[in-house]
Design a protein that fits this description.
Elements lengths: L4 H18 L3 H8 L5 H20 L2 E3 L2 E3 L2 H12 L1 H17 L7 H17 L1 H6 L3 H23 L3 H42 L1 H12 L9 H14 L4 E5 L4 E6 L14 H9 L3 E3 L2 H4 L10 E9 L2 E10 L7 H40 L3 H17 L1 H20 L5 E2 H19 L3 E7 L6 E2 L4 H13 L6 E10 L2 E8 L6 H5 L9 H17 L6 E5 L3 E9 L13
Helix pairs in contact: 1-9, 3-4, 3-5, 4-5, 4-6, 4-8, 4-9, 5-6, 6-8, 8-9, 10-11, 10-14, 14-20, 15-16, 16-17, 17-18, 18-20
Length: 571
């Protein structure tokens, strides 16, 4: 018995060395890490572990017309890792080979049967291995049990019984202990693959975060050839992939990497697996050239993952990662592709929301531009007609101001204009009002020098109009509106103050209520929303008023590159 320990240890060391080298191959690692292997992948795994069994046979030690060997190690590992299918098939591969190389031999048939049984038992114990806390003890115990079954089968099937019994006495303990130890070490090597995978998955968030920062600007202009190509280059440079591609529902939008000679931007979709991913909205993984189904015979791509890109529930295209090795798409690649797909889909949805918000803001602005009170226009024309009789020169000035006011009101297209342009618009409006109401309206301008200030058009004028209409004109003697533009902290504070009739606290509280569509409030609401849209919440209108004393409306505009963050700055 002791004479076969050292030779078997040598035999086992060869098998373990092969297992370690196999664990470094991408194909083997990816197969081991697969959670839901298909039938072809299971057959491939069975061939691998069956081959380990065959190697164990060839390195066996002759003992009394039989072999003390480590054939069971590969078969049992195959069953424990791959489940019943892999266990049975790998057991049959190694078992049939054992019988064929020694047909009619003393233990050939018994060993063939026992190898198949060991693979089957290990496969049935596969789910238990995944649940157990002590995998190594479980693996060792599985080896002992299976090797004991082999000895029992040899006693039952090998003839003559006396020779079978003598053989079992010699090999039972060495094979049970050493092969069980080999299974334990094999599981240790396999666990190393899972530990490394866990480490890689732990870094997944970091990788996606880095890519997210780079992609942030890519899809601000939507999903098209230019933005997709830019994103594909960024991703290709940051991850281990041989090619990156984006498509819409019909054609390739972007392609970077191996295969770009025939996977060309603008071409219609070439692979059926891509069409399936778009049609089903589900991730597709191809681990071979056959599964990719590229119609170019010279295509070097051998594996791919195709992940749908969505806006809401609608699939708008796919993101694809290709590799040139077969079975190279790992669990890490799948998680990474899923994360990138969700990231890109989210960015595209944000772009849509921002685009719709911009359209809405433009619509509000157009509504504000068109919101010329017919009474204002009618009264202005009546004023001009009256002045034509008594003061033609003044009528000419008012008509000029009215034309400038209307022209500016209709021709403003820029998102932001200078404070000078806005104030010219205000002065045109005020001149028309003063022509109508005379000394009842007084406007003072207090603007600091060197105000390099940009603000949305039609921001100050509606506020001045509100002060005149609802503040000054409701007083018998009228009053004064003062417009202040001051340097303030890291920006500018604009204040419109009047000494009109004022408002009570309850009215002020509801003044910017979006649900209230009162005519006098629409202009204020639009101005407030546009300020917040451009500069943030801290640029909202702040209104204070006292009944019988007057009203003050102020807001804050940050300098270029700064954003208002502290609400106190508009206090």
């Amino acid at each position: 018995m002791s004479k076969i320990f050292i030779p078997m240890m040598y035999e086992l060391s060869v098998l373990i060395t092969l297992a370690f080298l196999m664990s470094k191959l991408h194909v083997f690692r990816n197969l081991i890490l697969l959670k839901n292997a298909n039938i072809y992948q299971k057959i491939f795994l069975s061939i691998i572990f069956g081959s380990f069994g065959i190697i164990g046979t060839y390195t066996g030690i002759p003992v009394n017309g039989a072999l003390a060997n480590s054939r069971a190690v590969g078969v049992i590992i195959g069953g424990l890792l791959g489940g019943p299918f892999v266990g049975i098939l790998s057991g049959l591969i190694a078992g049939i080979h054992r019988n064929l190389i020694d047909i009619g031999g003393f233990t050939a048939f018994a060993c063939a049967v026992s190898t198949a049984v060991e693979g089957t038992v290990a496969g049935l114990l596969s789910s238990s291995l995944k649940r157990t806390k002590n995998r190594f003890l479980f693996a060792f115990a599985t080896g002992v049990i299976n090797e004991s079954l082999q000895m029992i089968i040899i006693l039952l099937l090998a003839k003559p019984f006396s020779e079978a019994l003598n053989l079992v006495k010699i090999i039972w303990i060495p094979m049970s202990l050493l092969n069980s130890l080999g299974i334990l070490v094999f599981i240790l090597i396999i666990d190393g693959i899972f530990i490394e995978q866990d480490r890689m998955l732990a870094n997944l968030a970091k990788v996606i975060t880095e890519i997210a920062g780079r992609l942030l600007k890519c899809f601000k202009e939507g999903y098209n050839e230019e933005t997709a190509q830019s994103a594909a280059r960024i991703i290709k440079n940051l991850i281990q992939a041989d090619a990156i591609s984006f498509t819409d529902k019909e054609k390739i939008l972007a392609y970077v990497g191996l295969g770009s000679d025939h996977h060309k931007v603008g071409n219609r979709l070439q692979t059926k697996i891509t069409e399936e991913a778009i049609a089903t909205g589900r991730i597709k993984v191809a681990q071979s050239k056959r599964e990719i189904e590229c119609d170019n015979e010279k295509c070097q791509l051998r594996s791919a993952i195709i992940v749908p890109l969505k806006k809401g529930d609608e699939t708008i295209g796919v993101f694809k990662m290709y590799k040139k090795e077969p079975y190279a798409i790992s669990n890490f690649d799948i998680k990474l592709a899923q994360g990138l797909s969700q990231l890109i889909s989210t960015q595209l949805e944000i772009h849509d929301v921002e685009y719709k918000e911009k359209l809405l803001e433009k619509a509000r602005f157009k509504a504000l531009q068109a919101q010329i009170n017919p009474h204002f226009l009618f009264n202005s024309l009546n004023t001009i007609m009256s002045l034509c009789r008594i003061d033609p020169l003044k009528a000419r000035d008012v008509l000029l101001n009215l034309s400038q006011y209307l022209r500016r009101n209709m021709e403003i297209e820029n998102d932001l204009i200078s404070i000078d342009d806005e104030m010219e618009h205000v002065k045109s409006f005020v001149s028309i009002q003063k022509a109508r109401f005379g000394n009842k309206i007084n406007v003072k301008y207090r603007i600091d020098e060197n105000c390099d200030l940009l603000l949305p058009p039609l921001t100050i004028q509606p506020l001045v109009e509100n002060s005149i209409k609802h503040g000054l004109l409701k007083k018998v003697d009228g009053g004064t509106v003062a417009i202040y533009v001051r340097h303030y902290q890291k920006g500018y504070k604009i204040t419109i103050r009047d000494d009109g009739v004022g408002m009570d606290a309850k009215y002020i509280k509801n003044l910017l209520n979006k649900k209230d569509k009162s005519l006098g409030k629409i202009g204020l609401i639009n101005v407030n929303k546009r300020l917040i849209s451009y500069f943030g919440d801290c640029s909202h209108l702040k209104i204070t008023s006292k009944k019988g004393i007057g009203t003050q409306i102020s807001f804050y505009i940050p300098k270029k590159g700064d954003v208002a963050k502290d609400e106190s700055i508009v206090g």
